Amino acid sequence: MDEQPPIIPAETRFFYPNRMGRILLQSTEDVLGRGGLLALLKIANLYHYTSGLPPNNLDKKFPFEDVGALMQGIDLLYGPRGGRGIALRIGRVSFRYGLYEFGQVLGISDLTVRLLPWSIKFNRGANSLADLFNQFSDQVVRLEDTPDILYWNIERCPLCWGRDLNEPRCFAATGLLEESMIWLSGGKSYQVEQTDCYAAGDSRCTFTIEKKPLD
Asked: Is residue 190 part of a domain?
């Protein structure tokens, strides 16, 4: 069933900073190519980005409904299975762009940090990434830590904003978290899985990050 972009009352609107929106669109173009991005923007009814990217600043003017519409458009254009793979790749590329644009703010790109024991580096990296979203955007991230699993809870999630889903589909966040673990660990892969999704009727979007590497 096709979804229609939601109409969001002004008083309930939330935003990414322009820089995060720019990273998302740049990453999408890297994955799909220029023609693919333009086709996606058309099907997502996001024509206002066809003439150029948002400015590279921290003004909170990239609305959550545009993020949700972009993710919805990926599923409409490529289907559920193809859309999953595309969104995962976009998330991974977004982390690489984000590390370049926000690395100094994150404080995890210094050699001294990368030489820390894994348990310390893991927690510091996860908390720094959560703080980045909480500080600069209207996305709300809360962490729950256990000996074996870190729960990454997005309590206000732009990726499924305004959507009505029957299963978790915030795959761009999964890809971003997977890539962050690879970078922090120096090349090891960790299992990341979305277990709950607000757009599918849950109270928040929850991702589990296994602390034991896959390889």
From this structure: yes
- Give the residue with greater pLDDT, 23 vs 119: 23
What CA–CA distances, in Å, run from 132 to 76, 98, 183?
30, 10, 17
Q: Scan for tokens 């348990």, then name that residue.
A: 119
User: Which pair of structure tokens corresponds to residue 98?
Assistant: 């984000």
**CA–CA separation, 130 vs 142, rounded Å?**
7
Q: Provide the terminal-to-terminal Cα distance of the chain, rounded to the nearest Å.
A: 39
Residue 4 placed within a domain = no
Which DSSP category does 167 fall into?
Answer: S
Token pair recorded at residue 167: 């299963």
Measuring CA to CA, which residue among 156, 134, 133, 153 is closest to residue 142? 153
Look up the domain containing 202 and give its range.
Answer: 14-213
In a domain, 2, yes or no: no
Q: CA 109, CA 169: separation in Å to the nearest integer? A: 29
> In what side-by-side order are the strands of the sheet with 149-156?
140-145, 149-156, 205-213, 190-196
Kindly indicate the confidence band of residue 10, based on its pLDDT and cuts at 50, 70 and 90.
very low
Whole-model pTM: value is: 0.90
What digits encode the pLDDT tens for the residues 20-47?
Answer: 999 999 999 999 999 999 999 999 999 9
Q: How confident is the model at residue 118 (pLDDT cuts 50, 70, 90)?
A: confident
